[in-house]
Amino acid sequence: MKKVYNVLAIDLGASSGRGILYTFDGKSLREKVVHRFANGAEEEKGHLVWNAAGIYKEICRAIRFADEACGKVDSIGVDTWGVDFGLIGKDGRLLENPRHYRDAVNTEMRRKYAEKDKAFFDIAGVSVNDFNTTYQLLARKEEKFDWSQVQYLLFMPQLFGYFLTGVAATEPTIASTGGFFVNGTFDKGFLREAGVPSGIFPPVRKTFAALGSLNEQTKRLSGISYDLPVILSPGHDTACAVLCCKERSHPLYLSSGTWSLFGTVEEKPVLSDMAFYGKYTNELGGDGNVRFLRNIMGMWVIQECRREWADAGMKFDYPAIVRMAESAEVTGAYIDLNDDIFFSPGQMATKVCEYVREKQGIQLMTVGEIAACVYQSMAMSYSRAFEELKKITGREYKVLQILGGGSQNAYLNGIIERKLGIPVLAGSIEASSLGNALGQLVGLGAGSLQSLREKIF
Asked: 237 an active-site residue?
């Protein structure tokens, strides 16, 4: 067995991307951030889209920087947010920039097909949300999209895997976010309804398998000459993060980033009416179990508030915003984070103030009061999800592990702890990247998932 492994985790979030180099010596794991870059929605032809070519170039830069940092990289893995996809044409090229899950047309489809909510949930146990892949595909049906020009539909991690290697594949954890992936295949009944040919989905490959090696174009852009494999780490960032839970059996976790994913792990999908009405979802984990969780708007609202404040000439970093929230007057204001008004970008602080004034008659006056309102609302959302989860699963949970960037917010963690009434354990800030690296090490033969977790955690 190789004694030292250097693996590059490409972790793409809705607001930023990062490349982190992990070095495993058989006993412990060291990390080095080699590249960070901004990411986000762009407007194009009346839609919100992702700049796929730009992201690909940033990935190539990360490979170059990782190679310079360690001498030789042993593998790469890519994880991203869920539900979105890219379309590859018959000529092997991307037909158009992938649409963003916050594109307004998705909300229109969700409303148009509202009577199908329970039927869509029953397909795979995925909660009904505006951003679901199901509604994105139904939007294409409304537009009379010509599927005959499409060779592959690739979810985002595999889209970039295709750019890197030229090999097309489907990875289960990311496919399960779509809403129509069941027992290792895509539901043909839904595809017929949406008018989508089943042949555009490439073969399903096992998580942790090798996708292929970098193609010549990627090697040239990355400045390397050796063969470098891309491993199918869990494609969904939350699936990566959950691999980092210290508790093995039915852990309670909060993956805290732009989105908050609050839930546990079950051996099989939970398809009860309580799960449906509680807006819980069933997605696959890298270990083959089910991530039973609820999607809650997370740091997105604060991120967008910060952007509005910056546009007004008030530039604050996140620690400064937290300090202002801590020292703000207690107003009792709160918002429903999952209200449609907070889903779209732009003027978020203004939306928060108007919402609170209309619903509660409270006037928020300062940055600190607005931020405190948002943080309190986040904790309240987690508390409600926690009580629902206990009823649905019939389990008691002794500790909540917070994973991801939100884990470093001690102020918010304290509020959560008081609301839930159980201890909060702050986990890895880069949990998605760390789980990505763990998956690569499994794929490279450095050890089993269980043995690696015991050594690393």
From this structure: yes
